[in-house]
Backbone:
């Protein structure tokens, strides 16, 4: 039985779930839907943990305020101190 005979390519197929994901990855409209999500799953999960910890009183309001103000400061730096330069095709 070790003659090297195995299933042919017509016998082997992907499960329905993998076929669906493959079709979605090849579809150009599905890439637009993936880009529309603001946060990936792991960030949403981390945000949920942060909300639970802050609601239960394990994180002080000062720490939460520090994080919020640092986000505002980083956004300010992003927009005003390091603005994106327009791309030009001529070098």
Residues:
């Amino acid at each position: 039985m070790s003659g090297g005979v195995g299933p042919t390519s017509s016998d082997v197929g992907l499960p329905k779930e993998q076929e669906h994901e493959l079709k979605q990855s090849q579809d150009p409209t599905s890439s637009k839907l993936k880009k529309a999500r603001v946060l990936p799953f792991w960030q949403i999960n981390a945000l949920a943990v942060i909300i639970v910890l802050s609601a239960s009183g394990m994180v002080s309001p000062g720490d939460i305020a520090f994080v919020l103000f640092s986000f505002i400061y980083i956004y300010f730096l992003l927009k005003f101190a390091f603005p994106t330069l327009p791309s030009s095709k001529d070098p």
Remarks:
- Helices lie at 16-26, 28-36, 41-55, 61-81.
